[in-house]
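FORM 7B: Structural annotation worksheet

SECTION A. Query
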Amino acid sequence: MLNTIDLLKKYGQPCKEENFIQIVLPYPMRLAWDTNTKVTKITVHKLIATNFQNVFKQLLDKYGLNKIQELGIDLYGGTFNCRKMRGGDQMSKHAWAVAIDLDPDRNTLKETSKTTRFARPEYKDMIDIFYQNGFISLGREKNYDWMHFEIGI
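SECTION B. Predicted structure
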């Protein structure tokens, strides 16, 4: 996992809009807290836009749209958010737009592999796709915050 010093060196200052780009998703996502709202573009750091695009293309190729929706992989919890880490004094990885949260209602912050959905076998390929594209899962690495995937390179 990248620390704040690494993030500053590679990705610049947090919350700097000139570092961000919007990418078009290969399939529509649903806003996690209002599933009637479709998300077709997301804001990410321009240096890893291709990483994000590859993840979503590979998820679609692997699962297909119906399975993505059935599993809730399309429930978008956010990428860019200029804020500090919950319970901390350092900036969140979301402030650099190098992280994404998926299906936050069923993969809550403090859940462990005993209860979270993303620890189930049907999500292994999803998590592997994130890793293949330079991301890490806090769930897999620390057994909490299973919704959260952040760049690790």
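SECTION C. Observations
The two ends are 8 Å apart (CA to CA). Residues 49-71 form the longest helix (23 residues).

SECTION D. Sign-off
Analyst initials: ____
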